[in-house]
Recover the amino acids of this structure.
């Protein structure tokens, strides 16, 4: 154990900055988004304030997302996000097994992190879906709602604006669920606080 | 007594016509009255000179024969309501002085028409601004042309048709300087000007009835008849654009475009005041989202318990 105890510089500065802005922004979006779902009268944050915060965060996060998207390619951080299809489900299942009961029975982590592997298969899938499906979708639908004249007027009998708004909230909801799971899974490790320190300092401890 | 006789007569008449299943107006060109009252130019025999004369018809006295044949009173003939002496032309001047029956004279207290609640309508109408300002001078016939009226809200399934018919009753006067002046004694305010604050006026007037904003809706009446004074008119957009999510979506779009028109472009991106509408509009999605959320929390809690027990 002690022999392998080393540190890896997993999260370069640009990524940590992106992540910090992203985390704060998304939390603001979730809170104001939920508030607005309650409508004009019942919202717990004053409606106008909620809208201003939501729109501002949304725009800042869009710029931030471009930063992540381009940064990932330039720094080749994106290599950690690429999924090799062969045997992927098997690996996924193994990792799930580990989280569900393996870790309580003294099973070794099936995919120990290393220089070559920053994410375990479950983590990888979650990050890819969130960062390359849900977040882009929320951004696009969000901007469509800011520019409603772009939206198709009617889809069959339904208002295009309404459909867009509902899809936007559903995607936002799944990002919230991701956040809850993300926060919890990050606390799984040697000590609960370890991973959180990593995303601030950049250094990941390999045990 | 005269009224009763008339009622009996008209009922008999109606029964007779029902059997025939035809209206007396099927052939306007040869009808004793419609040959004149459905055309712009009339011709008649001048008994003094013995020549044929032509005159222009007063446009307000021309009856739309299509609407006439669709009206509720299509089985009547003209002379069931108007004096038989009208068959002579020039009409006798004194005929003008004959009182005409109004809706309540024939329909009031008649159980056949209970579903229309004529008495209740009368009661409501007496509370309306029209009656308060103009009194008896403003009767049901000001809105309901006895020749052509047919209940639409009750029978039509097309909202557009209901709206356009209902609004035509109001606009036939409010958009007609002469008819309006006849009642008010002064010129009519421009409906379009008055409602300038309402965006997309044309679309609104096609989709909402005037009475939607100008009456207190009563559940017990099919059509509310108490037209309120203008300061009690509905102005709040939310009253309509809140309950129905589809309407809300259209309002959302408007608010958003408006905000951008008022502010500078970039500024408006951050401050536009929009009505967000979302998944919470749909109860099923709401329940589903709670379910997923609490299942997630539940799974995490169980995991935490195991981590504590196993000190992981
Ligand atoms: C308070 C909020 C958040 C905290 C405390 C947090 C914490 C962490 C931690 C500890 C890590 C590194 C360990 C790991 O990979 O599991 C991480 C990485 C990551 N987080 Fe978060 N996170 C937060 C919000 C978010 C949000 C809202 C998103 C996206 C919507 C997100 C996306 C990511 C991604 C993509 C990575 C991997 C970055 C990389 O190495 O390429 N995080 N976060």
């Amino acid at each position: 154990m002690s022999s392998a105890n080393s540190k890896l510089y997993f999260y370069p500065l640009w990524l940590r900055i992106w992540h910090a802005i992203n985390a704060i922004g998304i939390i603001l979006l979730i809170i104001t988004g939920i508030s607005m779902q309650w409508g004009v009268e019942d919202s717990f944050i004053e409606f106008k304030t909620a809208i201003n915060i939501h729109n501002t965060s949304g725009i800042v996060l869009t710029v931030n997302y471009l930063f992540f998207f381009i940064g990932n390619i330039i720094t080749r951080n994106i290599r950690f996000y690429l999924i090799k299809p062969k045997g992927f489900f098997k690996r996924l299942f193994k990792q799930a097994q580990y989280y569900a009961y393996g870790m309580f029975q003294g099973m070794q982590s099936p995919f120990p992190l290393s220089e070559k592997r920053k994410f375990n298969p479950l983590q990888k899938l979650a990050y890819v879906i969130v960062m390359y499906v849900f977040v882009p979708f929320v951004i696009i639908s969000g901007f469509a709602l800011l520019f409603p004249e772009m939206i198709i007027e009617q889809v069959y009998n339904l208002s295009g604006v309404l459909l867009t708004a509902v899809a936007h909230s559903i995607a936002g909801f799944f990002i919230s669920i991701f956040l809850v799971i993300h926060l919890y899974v990050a606390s799984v490790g040697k000590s609960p606080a370890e991973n959180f320190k990593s995303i601030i300092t950049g250094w990941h401890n390999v045990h | 007594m005269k009224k009763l006789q008339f009622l009996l007569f008209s009922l008999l008449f109606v029964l007779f016509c029902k059997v025939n299943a035809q209206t007396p107006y099927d052939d306007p060109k040869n009808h004793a009255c419609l040959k004149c009252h459905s055309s712009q130019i009339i011709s008649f025999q001048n008994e003094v000179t013995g020549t044929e004369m032509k005159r222009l018809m007063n446009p307000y006295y021309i009856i739309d024969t299509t609407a006439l044949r669709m009206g509720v009173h299509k089985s009547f003939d003209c002379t069931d309501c108007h004096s038989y002496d009208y068959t002579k032309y020039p009409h006798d001047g004194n005929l003008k002085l004959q009182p005409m029956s109004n809706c309540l004279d024939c329909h009031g207290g008649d159980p056949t028409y209970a579903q229309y609640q004529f008495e209740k309508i009368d009661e409501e109408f007496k509370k309306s601004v029209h009656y308060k300002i103009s009194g008896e001078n403003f009767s049901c016939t000001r809105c309901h042309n006895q020749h052509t009226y047919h209940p639409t809200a009750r029978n039509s399934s097309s909202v557009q048709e209901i709206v356009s018919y209902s609004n035509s009753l109001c606009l036939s006067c409010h958009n007609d300087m002469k008819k309006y002046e006849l009642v008010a004694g002064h010129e009519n305010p421009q409906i379009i000007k008055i409602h300038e604050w309402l965006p997309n006026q044309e679309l609104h007037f096609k989709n909402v009835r005037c009475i939607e904003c100008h009456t207190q809706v009563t559940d017990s009446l099919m059509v509310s008849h108490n037209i309120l004074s203008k300061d009690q008119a509905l102005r709040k957009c939310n009253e309509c654009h809140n309950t129905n999510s589809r309407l809300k979506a259209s309002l959302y779009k408007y608010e958003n475009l408006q905000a951008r028109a008022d502010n500078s472009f970039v500024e408006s991106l951050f401050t536009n005041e929009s009505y967000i509408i979302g998944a919470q509009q749909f109860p099923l999605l709401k329940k589903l989202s709670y379910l997923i959320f609490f299942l997630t929390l539940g799974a995490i809690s169980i995991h935490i318990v195991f981590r504590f027990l196993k000190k992981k």
Observations:
- Chain B has two domains: 21-97, 99-259.
